[in-house]
Amino acid sequence: MSDTKPVVTRFAPSPTGSLHIGGARTALFNWLFARGRGGKFLLRIEDTDRSRSTPENTAEILAGLTWLGIDWDGEPISQFERAPRHAEVARELLASGKAYKCFSTTEEIEAFREQARAEGKSTLFRSPWRDVPESEHPDLPFVIRIKAPQDGAQTITDQVQGEVTIGNDQMDDMVMLRSDGTPVYMLAVVVDDHDMGVTHVIRGDDHLTNAFRQKMIYDAMGWDFPVMAHIPLIFGPDGKKLSKRHGATAAAEYQAMGYPAAGMRNYLTRLGWSHGDAEFFTDAEARAWFDLEGIGKSPARFDTKKLEHLCGMHIARSDDADLVAQIKGYLAKIGAAPLTDAQADGLLRAMYTLKERAKTFPELLEKAHFVLTQRPIVPDEKAAAALDTVSRGILNELTQLLPDVSWERDTLETLVAEVAEKHGTKLGKIAAPLRTALAGRSVSPSVFDMMLILGRTESTARLAEASS
């Protein structure tokens, strides 16, 4: 294949369920590789399993990709709708003598395999119809099989796995078209990839053996064989294939848990691929750096703590207004009440003090409780314990002084420190009842940040209510 062709990659999920984390990473790798080279990233829905493929699953997969920020070129292609084209290729190979009609029944094939197992021989079925001339064909249902090479070996140079070779004696004459005229998956994939102009196939290494069977069709049709890159699967912390026993496995679940998409992209890109020692990187850096050489051969292990760490870094570095928009999307995803205009404005003003140590949107929203709630402030049990007769008296005294001070951090800190000293205590001792009055929580941003964000009128009103 010519290296001068524009790069075209694809992601081809089956809509039999939601977008799995492994699928999301595969899509991301294909997207990064294409986008970093000015190429195209295409989407194909492999919906040939009609009993399990649903429009709802397709919509959820598209929504998961959209949330992750993975865009595609053109409209998604339905594999099912292209069945006539797949069958056309099988008949073309039949007409050229590179495929043949096989009339062996399912029962005959199974009987052969049972006997082979009993005799300790290979169960690879060799059809007796491979070289039977058309004139001797019965008027019976048949499948169309491709003629596999029978001698020698074939090698695929995989960009991740290296050179992989198998003997042609391990290849059977694969069925391409069933007796009812429907194409098999192996044929459909090859025809679709060729017709879509796919130059690079980046997919899970569980498809590596399929590549040899698919190569037979490429060779028989005289088509360019795409560059192959079979990436290792994702394992859980216990070294076993990632599954629900390890926790969430769908992209939608992580969205609903409030992980930012940028952090998720960063983590999934880093999961099985590396660029030096870089852990945190931007989308622009990922597109510029991503290559197939950086993909490791060993399965990567999903580590929630690393995911949270990266997500926290992305939240901290995000634009404040963009974070508010992301939080609105998160609230819509979980079916929560949308932010009012006043809440969104308060959240934006408070963001500088909220985003530094939050790893997820729920953590950030919990810190933002003070600016999202309204009077009367109802403290939780732990916060309420900070309010006693003495602390209420101190809050009452502060309330009387607040209308006349300059509303600046240094001035407020000095005022609170002076009141604390007057009562023979430290500023830290006053911080707890102040926090309760302002936020109703025992954990919150700095009391002085909260006062600046809430403003003089609201802060004074909250202290007055708590001290009464």
TrEMBL record:
Can you supply one Gene Ontology CC term for this chain's record? Answer: cytosol
Q: Does the keyword Disulfide bond apply?
A: no
Looking at its record, which EC class is this enzyme? Answer: ligase
EC number of the protein: 6.1.1.17
By its UniProt entry, which Pfam families does this protein fall under?
Answer: Anticodon_2, tRNA-synt_1c
User: What is the protein's known function?
Assistant: Catalyzes the attachment of glutamate to tRNA(Glu) in a two-step reaction: glutamate is first activated by ATP to form Glu-AMP and then transferred to the acceptor end of tRNA(Glu).
What is this protein identified as? Answer: Glutamate--tRNA ligase
This chain's source organism reads: Ketogulonicigenium robustum
Q: Which gene encodes it?
A: gltX
